[in-house]
Every structure is written in structure tokens, then in C-alpha cells.
Amino acid sequence: MNTLYITGAGVSAESGIPTFRGEDGYWTIGSRNYTPQQMATRAMYQQNPAEFLAWYYQRFVTYRHHGPNSVHYWLSDKSLITQNIDGLDGKAGNPDYVSIHGRIDQITLFHVQGEPVERITAPWHEVDESHLTQSLLDCFKISSKGPELNVSYKPYVLLFDEYYTELYQISRAQQMMLDAEKIVFMGTSFSVNITQMALEIARERELPIEVVDPSPCHVLHKHVIYHKMTASEYIQQN
């Protein structure tokens, strides 16, 4: 059976990475002046790039030395769409997964959404923490004029005020959903568009789905099995 796995922050939590929406999550911990929902936006990047980059730098530092866990390795040969930006599925050896919200270890040119751009390795390791603000601005080629289109760099991360484009492999993700005979959701709160898109396709095609989470969200679907357990407990049974 062609099974598609769609993973969220709960899968990487066992690698020591906080979930985004839990009490210790990135979306509940902001900067001194802004909430995460204000910080993780294209508007903030343009208006206050130094604070924007410092916020993402701290998120990168938090887990850049964390490694994949058993679930990432189990998923390494599976059809996979992840909402996580940590890049751990790549470290685990999955050669062809879709990171639908981007990867914090990569950057692109700052561009008009929809235009084709290349993804390159992020320069986080070049940042001088003793002069953090200026070093971040220098590494991302941001002058006193602020971010400039096709000159400055931007983290390869889908922001709250952006939309899915081919840069984030949205057409491929949709095709993976259409090709699936079963969809397994692991460690996700169903609070983002990609999970709703997958649910709609599952309903239309009457696909069986499974929801793996210690506290699973109830979904409106006729053919659903809930597994009230962690992803690592699930893979031990499969």
C-alpha cells in the first residue's frame, strides 16, 4: 500500500526540539517586543531584519547540534511530507522528502514570491555572536536600506504572511496526497493549511487515515484510526 506520512513537531520533540505550539514552543516564546506570530512574518523581516534574524538564529542554535531520532530513521525510506524546518529527516537519510515549510539550514535570495530561486546552505556558522546584530545583517547581505530584492538573503522558511509556492514543492506535495492509498499523520496539531489540504483529499477519495499523537485531535473523517501514543511507540508496533 502506498502510504503517505505527514509529520509535525511532535516527531522532532523526542530529539529535544520544542514543539511550536506547546507550552515550551517557539510560538509561545517571543522576543521582548513581539509575539511569534508577529515575528515570523515577511513584514517583520522587511521592517526589522535584525530582530527577525536574531529570533531565527536562536531557533537554529537551539537544535543545530540535535540529531535524528528513531522515528526519523524509520521514516527515511518512506513517502514523507514534514511540516518541520529542522532538517532532521535529511540527516536521517531520507533522500526525497518534502519539507513543506522550508528548512532553517538553508536560505534563498529575498525575492518576490513565486519567482524561481535557488536554495543554498545557510551561513549561520559564520555568525559572530560577540557582534550578533551586525554579523547577522552582514551574513544576509542586508544594508542600512533594509532587505533588498534579489540582493539580500532570507531564511528558507515559510512565514505567516506568505503562501505555499513551488519553492516549497506544493504541487509535488499535492500529487503525493493524490497518489496515496493511506495517509498517516504523526505528531501534528492539524493547525496548518497542509494538513487541512490532506484531510480534504482523504475525504474526497475516501482514503483511510491514521492519527498518531498522545493527545490526538479529532478529525471529521469516516475512515480514521487514532493511536494515542508517541511516534516512537507507534513505529515499535509497525
Automatic annotation (TrEMBL):
Keyword Transferase carried by entry: yes
Protein name: protein acetyllysine N-acetyltransferase
Source species of the chain: Saccharobesus litoralis
SUPFAM superfamilies assigned: DHS-like NAD/FAD-binding domain
Enzyme Commission number(s): 2.3.1.286
Deacetylase sirtuin-type domain boundaries: 1-238
GO MF annotation terms: histone deacetylase activity, NAD-dependent; NAD+ binding
Keyword NAD: yes
Highest taxon, organism lineage: Bacteria
InterPro entries (UniProt xref): DHS-like_NAD/FAD-binding_dom, NAD-dep_sirtuin_deacylases, Sirtuin, Sirtuin_cat_small_dom_sf, Ssirtuin_cat_dom
